[in-house]
Write a sequence for this structure.
């Protein structure tokens, strides 16, 4: 899984600064220069997992 060097989010382009930990990456806005962290989920590297739905337990005698 490759981490993109340049991404485009919310009409802004960001360039990769450094990796914070296994899940977070620090990006710098190319236009204004402010920094923002994105997770692997924000970068679309991981798909959202569906929630597990448990059925109610039936009272058995």
């Amino acid at each position: 899984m490759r981490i993109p060097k340049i991404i485009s989010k919310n009409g802004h382009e960001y360039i990769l600064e450094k990796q914070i930990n296994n899940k977070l990456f620090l990006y710098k806005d190319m236009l204004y220069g402010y920094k923002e962290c994105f997770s692997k989920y924000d970068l679309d590297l991981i798909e959202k997992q569906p929630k597990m739905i448990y059925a109610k337990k039936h009272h058995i005698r």
User: Anything to note?
Assistant: Strands lie at 6-9, 12-19, 24-29, 35-39. The chain has a mean pLDDT of 87. The CA atoms of residues 22 and 40 lie 9 Å apart. The radius of gyration is 19 Å.
